[in-house]
Each structure stands twice: as structure tokens, then as C-alpha cells.
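Please, structure for the following, as C-alpha cells.
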Amino acid sequence: MNYSQLKNRHRQLRDLSPTNLSLRVHRALSWLQRAEMAEDEDGQFIFLWIAFNAAYACEIDPAIRLCEQTTFRNFLEKLCLLDEQMAIDKLVWQEFSGSIRVLLDTPYVLQGFWDYHSQRITEQEWKNQLATGKKMASQALSSGNTPMLLGVIFNRLYTLRNQLIHGGATWNSQVNRKQLHDCVGLLHKLIPQIISLMMEHPETLWGDACYPVVEVVD
């Protein structure tokens, strides 16, 4: 699936969908389109992450605000429960299983590795974090627990996201090229599946979209 195919479906379904869902999908599709237009992997990753953010982020009472990683893990778990065709499972366990194993072995996308180099934690602590993530992934593999595995994967993606968004990496750097290439490949397939599942399940409570469209009256 690509932007054009999903956009055609959105045009057919948007009048039958709740306003908040339609807005989420519209925004996510716009960033998916931009990602498809980008010629560099840094830009593709950033735009794909924004598309993901547009899909899952919602307004939460500040008094009970969850951390961002908890929010998107809950979102991914909901998607897996709705995925009757197991399209996400097939992507994770079949098409990208090799790339995911390499990613989970890579310290450069583990936040603990950088916390160690910033002298916030010890060397043993970051190595324990790496081992814990690999253990969780192994448990997910043995039990077929896709949400658990996605939670570990997206923690790694979130570190890469922070490096790029906060200027912690050089554009087109060869240092992070391998993990960036693998992450872009996964997101290019996963984001369309996420958008498709959302459109297929308008009855699901997706929550209020952040920054709703507001017309300012002079």
C-alpha cells in the first residue's frame, strides 16, 4: 500500500468516519505522502515518524498525561488486536525479522548506551538494558507476542527519532546509515498498515486528535 491507494480509500470512507479519526488519517496521509517524496533516508524517517505521531497522538488531561512511549505502545497494542488479517505480524515476523534482530543488537539506538556515555549510568547498566530488550524480544518471539516486540522495536526507533529531531546526528551521516536504512524500510511498510487499520475500524475509540482544526473569528 502507498499514499495514493490509501488516499483513495480515505475519500470513500471519510464521510462515514468520526471527525477525529478522519482528521488523524488525513494528517497521517499527508506526511506519508511527503515521506514518499523525500529522496534521502533522514528525511524519510522524520516524515514517517510524523505520520506515525499524527496517527496515535491524542489530547490527554495533563494531570494523567502518560509518557509518549507508553502512549504509542498502547496504540500499537490496540492495532494488533484489530489486525484480523495479521498484516502487522507478517511484516514483523517474516519480512523484517532479520533487520529487527540486527536492530536489537545495535547499541547506537539504545538510549541507555548514550546515557552511559553522558555518565548518567554505569557501563553495566546500559549493557543490562540491552540484554533486557533482547530477552523481551526473545520472549515475544517464542510466544508470538507482536505488541511486546513492537514495544521494544519502537523504543529503539524513538532513540533514533530523538537523535535526528534534536540535532544529535549529521544529515546523511555514514555513522548511523545501516540502522536508519533498516528503520526506514520497516516504517515505510508499517505506517500504511497502521493507517489502513484505523480506517477499517471507525468504531474504535481513537481519542481526540491533538491541535484540532480551529477557525479564528476576527
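The CA atoms of residues 90 and 202 lie 23 Å apart. The first helix runs from residue 3 to 13.
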